[in-house]
Amino acid sequence: MSDFRPLKREEVSEANQAIFDNLEKALGFVPNLYATYAYSNNALANYLNFANAKTSLTAKQKEVVNLAVSQVNNCAYCLAAHTAIGKMNGFTEEQILELRAGGASFDSKLDALAALAKNVTENRGAANQVIVENFLAAGFTKENLIDTLVLVGDKTISNYIHSTTQVPVDFPEAQFLVTV
Q1: Distance of alpha carbon 131 from its chain centroid, rounded?
Q2: pTM for this one?
Q3: With 80 as the cut, is the pLDDT of residue 178 above it?
Q4: In Å, what is the CA distance from 100 to each residue of 19, 49, 113, 121?
Q5: DSSP characters for 34-75?
Q6: How far apart are CA 115 and CA 55, in angstroms?
Q7: What is the spatial distance between Cα 115 and Cα 65, in angstroms, rounded to a whole number?
Q8: Residue 175 confidence (pLDDT)
């Protein structure tokens, strides 16, 4: 395995130091995954701009996508982080587990979103057209579809960075998902 470790503030570029300072103010710490993005002088800023860009999806809907994608990509870091964020957005532990599995029996619209996020990730972008039709029939728009696909890409980037670097997870560990 690679010898990546999260960088400390004094080890990164001035631009990344400013981002670290802002993250410290906003979150109280610099998440290890973000400190890993900082190996690049540009990747952290680029990623945060991408992740925080305007979207037609709500914060809660974004977490549905983040959880489903991170489960398919088996990213322990992102599952831990988005379980915590999902709880902050009002999801229960049981709902989070269901979302990670690609469904939401508690909300038909979120069910269609979770199914799409899971399917498109599993099929590397080639979504099943029935699932796309169900997504649109659930009340989502074509704009929402495109924004969902962009978010799948966004989350996949972080999943891949963690899978490659294996930096330590600094969020409470996500519960193991038993799949049948």
Answers
A1: 21
A2: 0.94
A3: no
A4: 30, 25, 11, 12
A5: HHHHTTSTTHHHHHHHHHTS--SS-HHHHHHHHHHHHHHTT-
A6: 19
A7: 9
A8: 84
Classify 10 as helix, strand or coil.
helix
Are 132 and 124 a contacting pair, CB within 8 Å?
no
pLDDT band for position 172 (50/70/90)?
confident
Q: How many CB atoms lie within 10 A of CB 58?
A: 10
Q: Give residue limits of the domains in the chain.
A: 9-51, 59-163
**116 φ/ψ angles, rounded to the nearest 5 degrees:** -65, -50
Assigned token pair, 120: 């498109």
Look-up: residue for tokens 């996949």? Answer: 156
Residue 153 burial by Cβ neighbours in a 10 Å radius (0-12, 13-18, 19+): middle
Q: Kindly give, in sequence order, each residue whose CB lies less than 8 Å from that of residue 178, ignoring residues fewer than 6 positions away.
A: none
The greatest distance separating any two alpha carbons of the chain, rounded to the nearest whole angstrom, comes to: 51
- CATH numeric code, 59-163: 1.20.1290.10
Measured over the CA atoms of residue 30, residue 33, residue 37 and residue 43, the dihedral's sign is: negative
φ, ψ of residue 161 in degrees (nearest 5)? -65, -45
What pLDDT score was predicted for residue 3?
Answer: 84
Residue 152 tokens, joined: 């799948």
